[in-house]
Amino acid sequence: MASLLTQKSLVVGKLTKYVNDCAKRLSSHFIYYPDNEKPVSGETTKMNMMQAINNAMDITLRDDPTAVLFGEDVGFGGVFRCALGLQDKYGKDRVFNTPLCEQGIAGFGIGLATAGATAIAEIQFADYIFPAFDQGTIWEIQRRALPRAAQLVSEAGKARYRSGAQWACGALTVRAPSGAVGHGGLYHSQSPEAYFAHTPGLRVVMPRGPIAAKGLLLACIREQDPCIFLEPKILYRSAAEEVPVEDYTLPLGKAQILREGSAATLVGWGTQVHVLLQTAQLARERLGADVEVIDLQSLLPWDEDTVCNSVKKTGRCLIAHEAPLTCGFGAEVAATVQEECFLHLEAPVQRAAGWDAPFPHVYEPFYLPGVWRCLHHLTRLLRY
User: Fold this and answer.
1) DSSP-assigned letter for residue 336
2) What is the CA radius of gyration of the chain?
3) Whole-angstrom Cα distance, residue 60 to residue 71?
């Protein structure tokens, strides 16, 4: 009887370990590769990505008296705590909650920026940014005094052009947590970058970690065009680096080559960059191929020169992103590579992306273009 109980205990123990291991894989489909190079010299401190974003907003509120931070639950730090402690430090007039109304948040931000303030708006999840697309116009608010919200696509990106450069809302930055998180399901896991990348006048940015997040966010806040800053929420606490304490910015519209190689070019942004870095490592170990990995960082505008120069060198290109395949931003990159690098290509451009289906819950690992799917596409490229 005792031996039977022991056997059952061992089986339960193994089953528990198996479930726990699966849970770990579900919540993290990649290995994080921290940045070792610092954009500026000087003192650094260890920060995760949430803390780096908080630090960037802290610097802005400290140095810019017109800066205002607002969004749903931002007053107590936001659901991901990126604004933690900022209301206590700068007061309720500068860091405050809004109603649960994304179109209202966007309209308020456009109005503030047009009036000359630095507006930092937080959308609680990127999945809920869609009501802010088009819900009336700021011009109607001014003309009719109707309580209607402004719009990111129809007004924020077009304000300078429409007014003949008499005014703009370039001091508007809209932050939004985006992408897979391991358990978000169809309403808390989407990657909407391609929607906004189709809008002239906007800038669309997605960082890969704490150092990049701080530098890119500060650059967006000071940019003269309105910016959509998409934050891969799975990286908020899983990504940690030695981040420079002082104020610094990273150039918008400029990609970074994170790993040099000659066999193929791998292009990604956000969390997917780490998937591609792991893919590159496996390609070296299993295929004997050294591949180049590029982080776009900015999707609008994106760095065509860096990508195309790399592809002309390697002759092969794989683009990977979490968003669905059809009309994903990878299609724009692939079309440009085909047009600019056609005579240098040794194989058709490959894309690894989410499936053309709603984002699943328990089947998330099968939806995401993980390292093995990326390695499969890369193997096809190299053997073509």
Assistant:
1) H
2) 22
3) 17
Cis bond leading into 131, ω under 30°? Answer: no
323 closest CA partner among 206, 226, 200: 206
8 Å CB contact between 53 and 240: no
Q: 170 Cβ partners below 8 Å, 6+ apart?
A: 113, 160, 223, 224, 225, 226
Per-position DSSP letters for 223-266, written without gaps between them: -SS-EEEEEETTHHHH-EEEEESS-----TT--EEEE--SS-EE
pLDDT at 324: 97
- Let me know: does 248 contact 222? Beta carbons within 8 Å: no
Distance, in Å, from the CA atom of 373 to the CA atom of 369, rounded to the nearest integer, reads: 6
Given this model, what pLDDT does residue 23 score?
A: 38
- Which residue stretches of the chain have pLDDT < 70? 1-28, 134-151
188 catalytic? Reply is yes
Please tell me which residue in 72, 122, 155, 188 is annotated as part of the active site.
188
User: Are the C-beta atoms of 196 and 133 separated by less than 8 Å?
Assistant: no
* Residue 350 backbone phi and psi in degrees, to 5: -110, 150
Quick one: pLDDT at residue 70?
98
Cβ contacts of 359-362, under 8 Å, gap ≥ 24: 359/180, 359/184, 359/185, 359/186, 359/189, 359/190, 360/185, 360/186, 361/183, 361/184, 361/185, 361/186
Out of 72, 102, 231, 332, which one is annotated catalytic? 102
Helices 304-314, 329-341: inter-axial angle, 10-degree rounding: 60
pLDDT of residue 254: 98
Integer CA distances (angstroms), 227 to 119, 121, 193, 311, 366, in order: 11, 10, 12, 28, 32
CA-closest candidate to residue 371, choices 30, 34, 32: 30
Query: For residue 73, what are the contacts with CB-CB under 8 A and spacing of at least 6?
Result: 79, 97, 124
Distance CA 103, CA 186 (A): 21
- Catalytic site residue 332? no
Pairing of the two strands 67-71 and 95-97:
parallel
CB half-sphere exposure, 289, CA atoms < 13 A: 23
